[in-house]
Write a structure and sequence with these properties.
Distance between the termini: 88 Å
Shape: globular
Structural class: alpha/beta
Number of strands: 13
Largest sheet: 5 strands, parallel
Number of domains: 2
CATH architecture of the largest domain: 3-Layer(aba) Sandwich
Order of helices and strands: HEHEHEHEEHEHEHEHEEHHHEEE
Oligomer: single chain
Radius of gyration: 24 Å
Amino acid sequence: MKFRTLLATCAIAMLGLAALPATAADPIRIGWLSSLTGALSSAAIAENQGVQFAVEEINQAGGINGRKIELFTYDTQGDPTKAVNFAQRLAFVDKVHFVIGPVNSGESLATVPIVAKAGIPNLIIGTIDELVDPKKYPRAFRAINTNRQWIAAANDYALKTLKHSKVAVIGDTSGYGTSSAKTAAELLEKAGVKPVFSTLVDPNKTDLTDELAKAKAAGADVLMPWSAATGLLARLLNARGDMGWKVPVVGHPALMAPAIRKLLNKPEYWTEAYAAGYVSMTAGSDGKLPIATKALIERMRSKLGGNEVDFMFWWVALGYDTVRIVEHAVKKAGGTEPAAIQKVLETTPELRGVYATYGWTAEDRNGFPDVGIIMNLADSFKDGTYKPAQR
């Protein structure tokens, strides 16, 4: 009797195991480290909408190779310590197959080594150089551009298009601002141009008149600010305008953040300002956006409030593309085995996304192409996108 019961139990168990693949495959677990609250939240909130929308689209279409995506989202609040704790949780408790983020370089500097040690593929969306290294972090692949690509494009525009060479470099005192100002000066000097004025400013300083007066006295004919602090950049534009100094401003993408409009003393203070941006988010000579960008905006418009997009849409597109990169890697690898994912990504020469067309190699983990960067008119924001600066 006991033997028959055991046989019956085994038979039921075997039927259950046999049925499992037909009813539900294991989900693909993606960890998403995002500063959804705190001082660095604006870009992260937009990226999060793109990430979530891509997950919804893929799951509604049946998943990746029949496997649905399970998204584990943690709000780091822009705090590297919280980011580290959540990265450890994703790796050792949630046991995710991929990690996307964190969304800023400061947090990523703390988390990338943890994710790398756990052997988990990590899609990097911070811009500083140190975040990718094929030897130290073989499964870390960058989707966003590098900081140097922004700076090189801005330098090239100031020197070759605007024909100005008496440069004033202005950074803020944050780690990012300090590093960026240093890199900008180094790249200018490689081009044979030594800045006539350089300074670092507390991002909370309320009046930049003194700094700009010194830059003017030094003979500067172009201002190049490297800061992601929109408040500081608005105050720089206000100081320039209030001085009546018609010097061009060329620099960081934050120069064209929609939030700046509300902070200006006069709307015209935004003219003669140019920022490094993206071909994918820029209208062509016909006034039309790239097809993929326009299509994603329209598919998401209802989720974005149904009206004109009032923030930089490239953050949404970047978040969306990171999930599509996961989809590409899993399909090509035939699963989520980390070594196979690494092999797929480092042999992906051209993956078309919305934000960019990506490509990585065994030696280079920077996936964003130089040709994806363009200079934009800072005051041309409309429906999440921009117009190109004059060439």
